[in-house]
Amino acid sequence: MTASEGPPTSMRGPRFTILTPVYNPPVEVLADTIASVCQQTFTDWEWVVVDDCSPDEEVRNVLRRAAAGEPRIRLIERAENGHIVAASNTGLQAARGEFVCLLDHDDLLVAHALERVDEVLSLAPEADLVYSDEDKRVGRRRFGAFRKPDWSPQRLRGHMYTGHLCVVRRQLVEQVGGFRPGFDGSQDHDLTLRVSEVARQVVHIPEILYHWRVVDGSAAGDVGAKPYAWVVGAQAIDDHMRRLGVGRGELAHRRVGYYRTIAELPAHRSLSLVLLSAGGLAEVGAAPPTTRAEASLASVIEHSDHPLLEVILVVDSATSSQTVRRLSTRGVPLRVVRVGAGASSAERINRAALVATGERLVLLDERTSAESPDWIGQLVGALEEPGVGLVGPLVLDQHNEVRYAGHRYHSGRYEHVFVGTPHGDGGDWGALLVGREVSGLALAVAAVRRSDFLAVGGLTERIDPAAAEVDFSLKIRRSGLRAVWLPHVVARTVEPPRAREVSPTAAKRLVQWWGEPDFDPYLPF
Amino acid sequence: MPDDLTETHEELDRLRAVDAAFVRGAQPSTPLSELLDQLRERDRAFRQRPTQRVLDAAALVSQSWVEQGPTKTTRWVLGSVLRKGLGRS
Questions:
Q1: CB pair distance less than 8 Å for B19 and A514
Q2: C or N terminus of chain B, fewer CB within 10 Å?
Q3: Shortest Cα distance, chain A CAs vs residue B79, angstroms
Q4: Is B65 in CB contact (< 8 Å) with chain A?
Q5: 3-state DSSP assignment of residue A209
Q6: A479 vs B contacts (CB less than 8 Å)
């Protein structure tokens, strides 16, 4: 035998170790779970079942009968109840498979689940973590299909979206130390976060490969069923952020089971605010300052602790010299870029970026203002994570409805998502509650590294402004960087509703340049 | 964090280095209009560069496709790796 041939099949562990801690599930539910595993079309698996001292004797009997009838089932009966982390680690110690497949005692695998995972792993040999779509099931009724995003690290910090079916290379699970004691209830979220930090590739299979059954006491039926889980879940997020050195995490206050990340912007980071002025007057009733540009700048200064290095004010003839003079008295160095009235917003931003000297650019249209605390710190601070290239806030309109919450590209269309949704609504699968990767962002307000902006050639001037924002987002992503939307950073706009809509003609140009988007990787519903 | 786009990061680093020289060398004597022209040229050039990783991944899946025929998985993975060209990681 040569080293390259590896050990013979009989000496190797199986491809998959399904790992299931069991504690007193309804017997009929457990029997269905057992059947769903035994019916797998892919056969190279073992199932390590750890009974954590279930009080119901019938549960133990069901497990013993299953193990007696199926040699691939390895039943471990713990001598004392240790809760889910201890039981999971007991099972992990016994696992021999190349990959560990986490399965709850009340989950149902579809018959080809492992076959599909094996196919994907064959095609993506560097995949260390694989997850699938899911739905819920009561009796024979299926509902609540969750079409999950492709790998979205920011979203995983907002909620445990990967869920099950979760397949992890065993070597990595062991490398990170298995399940962490004290994280019962959010142990899978914590493990997924830690594995993601060292995984070479994370792969999403866009198929429903398991059903999450709604039974009494399960989080599938009631997110309030396990309140302890969310407290330790927030700790898991916080630990993850601190390990990465990109801030911290905490419970989001509006909904149980959702978290938010808090960025930390270093004091030395230099910022250039690019303020596009069209000479508009502030809304009726506004106290001085009297122009939109002045109101916009005032809002940023009011809601931010971090000092601005400079304001790059882009003006055409519509902005009066008095306005410019007043803006220059706001305590921030002002540099004025004058453009012709016909200059596109792309050209205006490009000119500003070329004269800016700050490490970070904050792009701000005069019709948009800052509203949330530590506005600059949270918006720009997210760029401290090396893989993040473009950041945008939640932008609300005057009716307190969502105007901009990220782009979605699908079926040849380029659109803003959740437009008109009342502020506070969670959106599909919590998409409005959590920070997440997005296909693109409106540049009415956004933050970007100046170096990245220039490296990708700025905003294209060969297409209409709304499409240029899509194109810019795609260029940033093409550079290997992520575009991230943050719901806890809030801005307000008075732009007309369709101000940044991509025209059909421009959409055709985008398709020529980038190919036709089939379905959005981050909002695939 | 997982980084399956190393080449593009390296490319970005290279561009950033070029950019630093570009900006240092340009200011203050270079007219803004000239800088803007250079930026526009970079914009044109940018989208014409497929990453080697995308090409490699597409070739791998194509080979599988040829050998096994198009399955739902190969179709999906092909689409997936091509989307990686847009920076998915």
A1: no
A2: N
A3: 9
A4: no
A5: strand
A6: 8-9, 11-12, 15, 87
Q: How far apart are CA A140 and CA A203, in angstroms?
A: 29
Any chain A CB within 8 A of the CB of B28?
no
A120 with B3: Cβ contact below 8 A: no
| Cβ contact, residue pair A479, B19, below 8 Å | no
Q: Which residue has the tokens 């882009």?
A: A314
Of the candidates A150, A261, A229, the one whose C-alpha atom is nearest the C-alpha of residue A487 is: A261
Q: Do residues A402 and A492 touch, judged by C-beta distance below 8 A?
A: no
CB-CB under 8 Å, B23 with A120: no
ipTM of the complex model? 0.79
Tell me the HSE value of A48 on the side-chain side, using a 13 A CA sphere: 21
Label the pairing between strands A201-213 and A334-338: unpaired
**Block residue for tokens 């971090």:** A306
B25 touches A: beta carbon within 8 Å: no
What pTM does this model have?
0.87
Distance between CA atoms of A73 and A149, rounded to whole angstroms?
A: 33
How would you write the pLDDT of chain A (525 residues) with one tens digit per residue? 333 344 444 567 899 999 999 999 999 999 999 999 999 999 999 999 999 999 999 999 999 999 999 999 999 999 999 999 999 999 999 999 999 999 999 999 999 999 999 999 998 889 999 999 999 888 888 888 899 999 999 999 999 999 988 999 999 999 999 999 999 999 999 999 999 999 999 999 999 999 988 876 555 545 555 678 889 999 999 999 999 999 999 988 767 889 999 999 999 999 999 999 998 887 766 566 589 999 999 999 999 989 888 999 999 988 888 889 998 888 899 999 999 888 999 999 999 999 899 999 999 999 999 999 999 999 999 999 999 999 999 999 999 999 999 999 998 899 999 999 999 999 989 999 999 999 999 999 999 999 999 988 999 999 999 999 999 999 999 888 999 999 999 999 999 988 999 999 999 999 888 888 888 999 987
- Best mutation target among B47, B49, B66, B84 (most A Cβ atoms within 10 Å) is B47
Q: Are A157 and A250 in contact (CB under 8 A)?
A: no
First to last CA, chain B: 9
Q: Return the structure tokens found at A405.
A: 């919450």
Under 8 Å between Cβ of A483 and A439: yes
Written as six digits, the tokens of A406 are: 């990220």
Best A116, A118, A123 member to test B by mutation, with max B CBs in 10 Å, is A123
Core vs surface per residue A108-139: b (16+ CB within 10 A) or e: bbbebbbbbbbbbbebbeebbbbbbbbebbee
* Cα of A332 vs its chain's centroid, Å: 35
Chain A residue with minimum CA distance to B74? A123
Nearest to A458 among B15, B39, B85 (CB): B39
Does A460 sit within 8 Å of B43, measured CB to CB?
Answer: yes
Query: Is A477 in contact with B86 (Cβ distance < 8 A)?
Result: yes
- The dihedral formed by the CA atoms of A358, A361, A362 and A363, expressed in degrees to the nearest 10: 130
Q: Is B75 on the interface with A (CB under 8 A)?
A: no
DSSP symbols for chain B: ---S-HHHHHHHHHHHHHHHHHHHHHTTTS-HHHHHHHHHHHHHHHTT---HHHHHHHHHHHHHHHHH---HHHHHHHHHHHHHTTT--
